[in-house]
């Protein structure tokens, strides 16, 4: 992926989503990973818009985390040796 084609914040969000998927041992990057990173991005446009709309960002983040918890994970047993 050519990150030089993205804005700094966009590239950070994509990289953060990839890292999040890895931390959660998900073998697939989904929109939920990206959405959580965008909602929690410091000085990002998404939190600014949500704040302006008077939305509860922690509640939204928790809802996204619940969706992420539903995704299958890769266990040590599933990984090739």
Q: What's the topology here?
A:
Blueprint (H helix, E strand, L loop, with lengths): L7 H16 L7 H10 L4 H8 L4 H13 L12
In the predicted model, the low-confidence regions spanning at least 5 consecutive residues are none
SS strand fraction: under 5%
Strand pairing plus helix content: what structural class? mainly alpha
What is the number of helical segments per DSSP (H or I, 4+ residues)? 4
What is the tally of beta strands? 0
Q: State Rg.
A: 14 Å
What kind of sheet is the major sheet? none
Structure description:
- This protein is mostly helical and 81 residues long.
- It is 58% helix and 0% strand.
- The chain has four helices and no strands.
- It has helices at residues 8-23, 31-40, 45-52, 57-69.
- Helix 1 (8-23) packs across helix 2 and helix 2 runs antiparallel to helix 4 (57-69).
- The radius of gyration is 14 Å and the shape is flat.
- The two termini are 28 Å apart.
Key attributes of the depicted protein:
81 residues; 58% helix
Short description:
The chain has 81 residues and is an all-alpha fold.
């Amino acid at each position: 992926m050519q990150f030089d084609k993205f804005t700094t914040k966009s590239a950070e969000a994509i990289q953060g989503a990839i890292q999040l998927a890895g931390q959660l041992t998900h073998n697939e990057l989904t929109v939920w990973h990206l959405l959580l990173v965008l909602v929690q991005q410091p000085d990002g446009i998404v939190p600014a818009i949500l704040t302006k709309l008077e939305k509860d960002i922690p509640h939204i983040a928790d809802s996204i985390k619940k969706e992420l918890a539903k995704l299958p994970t890769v266990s040590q047993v599933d990984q090739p040796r």
